[in-house]
TrEMBL record:
Domain NADPH-dependent FMN reductase-like: 3-139
A Gene Ontology term for the protein's cellular component: cytosol
UniProt superkingdom: Bacteria
Record InterPro entries: Flavoprotein-like_sf (IPR029039), FMN_Rdtase-like_dom (IPR005025), NAD(P)H-dep_reductase (IPR050712)
GO molecular function, one term: FMN binding
Protein name: NADPH-dependent FMN reductase
One Pfam family it belongs to: FMN_red
């Protein structure tokens, strides 16, 4: 079965991104044609880019980079779940993307952003990055409006108003990867 990784794109304590990723996984895993896993960048725990050669060479000095390369290579597609930070994306996510090159190339990617206004600017900024990595941006991308002060229960209720979009995303992955 084809596999898609849902990447949790922020790492600070009490982050909201893990709640968003958990909700999305429950929605997407209703598929019986594509498998969905969560990859948490906090667990991957990469240092700021410390490889001496450019990633396109695929020559990695560090064991952590090789492990990250092996993990990403196992997946046929990706969902990046991330908040808006100052009209952009979290640095930790850009760093994790920058570490690799061929491992991302030609693979479908959906952007699931959140913030006061759905993380719109973060999503626009990330579109350039995934284009630079030669990934294929999916048609279905989500923008979820969540306020920093929202309780877990409120955020959960708001997330469920996007269930239908998550279902469209599941269907798009099934079409692209079957
Ligand atoms: C450094 C930082 C910058 C932020 N900038 C924005 C912003 O530009 N627009 C916005 O709507 N929310 C912004 N927020 C609010 C976040 O979208 C909100 O706190 C979200 O829960 C952060 O995701 P996280 O909990 O997974 O880190 C910012 C939050 C942080 C920590």
């Amino acid at each position: 079965m084809k596999k898609v990784a849902i990447i949790v794109g922020s790492v600070r304590p009490n982050r909201r991104s893990s709640q968003v990723a958990a909700w999305l996984k429950v929605q997407l895993q209703q598929s019986n044609r594509v498998e969905f896993d969560v990859i948490d960048l906090k667990r991957v725990d990469l240092p700021m880019m410390d490889e001496p050669k450019i990633p396109f060479t695929g020559l990695y000095n560090h064991a952590k980079t090789r492990a990250w390369s092996n993990l990403v290579s196992q997946y046929d597609g990706f969902v990046l779940v991330f908040p808006q930070y100052n009209w952009g994306y979290p640095a930790v996510l850009k760093n994790a993307l920058d570490y690799l090159a061929r491992e991302w190339q030609g693979k479908p990617v959906s952007l699931v952003t959140f913030g006061g206004h759905g993380g719109t600017q973060a999503q626009v900024a990330m579109r350039l990055v995934v284009a630079g990595l030669k990934m294929i941006q999916m048609t279905v991308n989500l923008q979820i409006s969540l306020m920093p002060g929202d309780s877990i229960a409120t955020a959960d209720r708001l997330l469920h108003t996007h269930d239908w979009e998550a279902d469209l995303l599941r269907q798009e992955f099934e079409r692209r990867l079957s």
